């Protein structure tokens, strides 16, 4: 389904829901008007609170993001039993008027308006999450928190409406199995139609049978009710990363070029990058440059056989965990034992059968990705971990030294972040960190590395970029962050960062020296007022 068709379909759902939604606005208007004259009765207040709650959860689905946010403000005003202050009563009246203006707007064809105008959430959207369920409160909380990851939340309350949105393309699904028409049969339908789509399942209790069925139909996560938005965010981050099509690198070593060509041809459907090596002595050099996801070794090679080469790999800490798959014409017990004793993970017997090789390689790559994500990706922000950052930077330096290229390393620290945590709490602080990480990842190239160093500190390494250009790129990221209004529940705030930049080889030839010099430049930036970028060997920006 094209984008235009999707918006037409959503417009049709809007037309069916419009009268009900406007009716909820009328309930709010009536309550707001009454509140200006006298306190609300409990029944009127609860009805208005329910109307605001349902508006906040529903209207964002149709692109009315501002209306969703202010409806949530109205709900917060009406919650509880304490008397509503006069200032809040005036604000509620203003919210009701804004909701009507936004949801009715000029007298135009709403179907045409939605079909012709794509309305995205304020944050940069990288993915779309379809939420199929009737818990509107969970949907609102998810919409707020997911925006910090650049994820747009689209909520529906039936399998029929979900099918419409699915046909337009989404990146993940949160499915409540307790909906009357969206149980396990609908999960199976999604799995058959979209086998690679990550689906997180919600169900009553922790029934083992539901978990088994959810896993059978491709469920990537299972959450028993009641569900907290933080649980969904954690699973969502992992699921989106699993579904992301990363290019795997495979090193294949064999003294027979024709077999290497066959391996490349057989593995082509996986979309992997194959580095074919006929000389086993070059393997360590290739490992250092390529950091492969898998190594394929032929057992029988004349100068250095695959079993001996595997022992060499396992003796080097950097490559001790890289999966090794053997190709062998000998499958006797003694040879198989020696392969596994040397540290091999799997083997394929010759003559090589295409489907078997592809299946075994695919399984190993998926397992490698999962293990690497745990070690390489910061669970809060989704950028690289400190360990992964050091690994990539050191590889940058080795390549840059040979190719005589510059590398810039930036140390970034959020300004006054402790005050954010102290004033608003760590939940808000976590959302801020996620949003900052998303902006940094957006502002730098795919070949750069953005890593969270700990707390509110990040490190960015930029290959083939002098420090002056790196400082300029950081200044652009800083301006974008300053312009970002972070709305987190009732909190709205702006944040900034300070940064110091060092350049290889001008400022140093090794990682620790570059970090120390960039960190010193960061300290200068903070001493000069914060919200600044300072390069160690160039003027302040």
Provide structural commentary.
The protein has 541 residues and is α/β, with parallel strands linked by helices. The protein has four domains: 1-109, Four Helix Bundle (Hemerythrin (Met), subunit A) (Up-down Bundle); 120-244, Rossmann fold, CATH 3.40.50; 249-375, Response regulator (Rossmann fold, 3-Layer(aba) Sandwich), CATH 3.40.50; 386-535, 2-Layer Sandwich (Alpha-Beta Plaits). It contains 20 helices and 17 strands. The protein has helices spanning 3-35, 42-58, 65-78, 86-104, 110-116, 136-147, 159-168, 184-193, 208-216, 229-243, 257-267, 283-290, 306-315, 333-341, 354-376, 386-403, 417-424, 426-443, 467-483, 511-527, and strands spanning 127-132, 151-156, 172-176, 199-203, 219-224, 249-253, 273-277, 294-298, 324-328, 346-349, 407-414, 449-454, 457-463, 486-488, 491-493, 497-504, 533-535. A five-stranded parallel beta sheet has the order 2-1-3-4-5, with helices on both faces. The protein has a five-stranded parallel beta sheet with strand order 7-6-8-9-10, with helices on both faces. Strand 14 and strand 15 form a beta hairpin. Helix 1 runs antiparallel to helix 4 and helix 3 (65-78) runs antiparallel to helix 4. The chain starts with a helix and ends in a 6-residue tail after the last strand.
Summarize this entry quickly.
By secondary structure, the chain is of the alpha/beta class.
Strand order of the largest sheet: 2-1-3-4-5
Distance between the termini: 47 Å
Biggest sheet layout: 5 strands, parallel
- Rg, rounded, reads 28 Å
pLDDT < 50 runs, ≥5 residues: 106-125, 241-245
CATH superfamily of the largest domain: Reverse transcriptase/Diguanylate cyclase domain
- Secondary-structure class: alpha/beta
- The count of helical stretches stands at 20
CATH topology of the largest domain: Alpha-Beta Plaits
CATH architecture of the largest domain: 2-Layer Sandwich
């Amino acid at each position: 389904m094209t984008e235009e068709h999707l918006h037409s379909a959503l417009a049709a759902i809007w037309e069916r829901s419009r009268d009900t939604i406007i009716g909820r606005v009328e309930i709010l208007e009536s309550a707001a008007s009454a509140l200006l004259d006298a306190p609300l009765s409990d029944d009127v207040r609860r009805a208005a609170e329910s109307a605001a709650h349902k508006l906040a959860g529903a209207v964002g689905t149709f692109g009315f993001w501002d209306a969703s946010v202010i409806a949530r403000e109205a709900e917060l005003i009406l919650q509880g039993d304490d008397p509503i202050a006069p200032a809040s009563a005036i604000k509620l009246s203003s919210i009701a008027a804004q909701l009507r203006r936004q949801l009715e707007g000029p007298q135009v064809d709403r179907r045409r308006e939605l079909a012709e105008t794509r309305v995205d959430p304020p944050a940069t959207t990288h993915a779309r999450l379809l939420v199929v369920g009737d818990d509107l409160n969970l949907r609102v909380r998810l919409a707020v928190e997911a925006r910090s990851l650049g994820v747009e939340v689209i909520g529906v309350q039936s399998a029929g409406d979900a099918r419409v949105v699915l046909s337009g393309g989404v990146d993940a699904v949160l499915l409540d199995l307790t909906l009357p028409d969206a149980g396990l049969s609908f999960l199976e339908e999604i799995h058959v139609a979209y086998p690679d789509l990550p689906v997180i399942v919600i169900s009553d209790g922790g029934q083992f049978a539901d978990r088994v069925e959810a896993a059978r139909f491709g469920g990537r996560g299972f959450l028993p009710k009641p569900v907290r938005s933080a649980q969904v965010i954690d699973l969502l981050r992992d699921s989106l990363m699993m579904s992301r099509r990363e290019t795997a690198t495979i090193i294949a070593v064999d003294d027979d070029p024709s077999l290497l060509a066959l391996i490349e041809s057989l593995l082509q459907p996986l979309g992997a990058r194959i580095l074919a090596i006929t000389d086993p002595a070059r393997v360590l050099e290739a490992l250092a440059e390529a950091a492969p996801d898998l190594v394929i070794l032929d057992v029988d090679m004349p100068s250095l056989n695959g079993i001996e080469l595997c022992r060499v790999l396992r003796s080097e800490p950097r490559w001790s965990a890289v999966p090794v798959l053997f190709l062998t014409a000998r499958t006797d017990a003694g040879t198989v034992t020696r392969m596994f004793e040397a540290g091999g993970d799997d083997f394929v017997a010759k003559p090589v059968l295409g489907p078997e090789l592809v299946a075994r390689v695919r399984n190993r790559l998926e397992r490698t990705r999962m293990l690497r994500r745990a070690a390489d990706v910061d669970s809060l922000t989704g950028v690289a971990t400190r360990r992964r950052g050091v690994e990539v930077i050191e590889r940058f330096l080795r390549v840059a030294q040979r190719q005589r290229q510059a590398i810039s390393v930036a140390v970034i620290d959020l300004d006054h972040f402790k005050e954010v945590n102290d004033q608003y709490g760590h939940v808000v602080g976590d959302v801020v960190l996620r949003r900052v990480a998303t902006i940094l990842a957006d502002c730098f190239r795919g070949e750069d590395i953005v890593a969270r160093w700990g707390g509110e500190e990040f490190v960015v390494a930029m290959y083939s970029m002098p420090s002056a250009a790196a400082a300029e790129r950081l200044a652009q990221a800083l301006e974008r962050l300053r312009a970002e209004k972070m709305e987190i529940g009732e909190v709205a705030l702006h944040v900034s960062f300070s940064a110091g930049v060092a350049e290889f080889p001008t400022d140093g030839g090794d990682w620790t020296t570059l970090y120390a010099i960039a960190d010193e430049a960061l300290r200068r930036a903070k001493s000069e007022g914060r919200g600044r970028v300072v390069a160690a060997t160039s003027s302040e920006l």
